[in-house]
Design goal:
By secondary structure, the protein is an alpha+beta fold. It has helices spanning 79-83, 99-107, 112-126, 165-170, 195-206; strands at residues 2-4, 11-13, 22-24, 31-33, 39-41, 48-50, 87-91, 128-133, 136-141, 147-152, 156-162, 172-179, 187-193. It contains 5 helices and 13 strands. The longest helix has 15 residues, at 112-126. The two termini are 38 Å apart.
Length: 207
């Protein structure tokens, strides 16, 4: 800790254990009161308080407005986040996730119901997109009506892979993602092929 002699202007290194004591200046011989350099007197009550204090804890005098320039809201995003964003992976639900529906559609293909079933499966696969970028996970669903949901990689609290026995056999799984702002699942990626690879990719972006 450095102190300055008020008599001759000399600067010296002093151990913090000498705070509150009086020492002799080695140059001019005058006495120096060793004060804590991190404390300043309150302009109203003159009690020593921290230099970083916004108000005096003794008399309540406001010293300065809280510093807001360095505070960034958790959900606020700067333009540079988008400028540096790059696409990493694009996924759709795997066809194997609709295996029984596809089989049923093929069996009933001579009838209109079979065509409708296969059309439904195609729409579900083609118009459900999971886009992973270096900054976000974006989910888009819908053919006529559109639904989009997204979550920032930095806000992800947990990435969980859920696979039943049948899903493990056919190589698909569900990925459930939550954020610090929610207690449960915020985004669900349903019926993803090779789900472990997707989970590993997302986790690699979180570090």
């Amino acid at each position: 800790m450095k102190i300055e002699c008020p008599h001759c202007g000399g600067h010296y290194d002093v151990d913090p254990q000498y705070i509150g004591q009086t020492l002799k200046c080695p140059d001019c011989g005058n006495e120096i009161e060793v004060n804590n350099p991190n404390l300043i007197p309150c302009p109203d009550c003159f009690v020593p308080i921290s230099r970083r204090a916004n108000c005096c804890p003794h008399c309540g005098a406001v010293l300065k407005a809280p510093e807001m320039t360095t505070i960034r809201l958790e959900n606020q995003t700067s333009s540079t986040d988008f400028a540096s964003e790059k696409e990493v992976m694009v996924c759709h639900p795997g066809a194997m996730n609709y295996l029984w529906a596809i089989i049923l559609g093929i069996i009933t293909l001579p009838f209109i119901i079979g065509i409708l079933i296969l059309l439904y499966v195609w729409i579900e696969i083609h118009y459900t997109t999971y886009r992973i970028t270096t900054a976000r996970l974006i989910v888009r669903r819908g053919w006529i009506g559109k639904l989009q949901n997204e979550i920032w990689i930095k806000d992800m609290r947990a990435v969980n892979l859920v696979q039943g026995v049948w899903q493990r056999l056919i190589g698909v799984g569900n990925i459930l993602i939550g954020s610090a702002a929610t207690a449960g699942t915020e985004i669900s990626m349903i019926g993803i092929s090779n789900p472990q690879k997707v989970v590993d990719t997302i986790n690699s972006l979180r570090h």
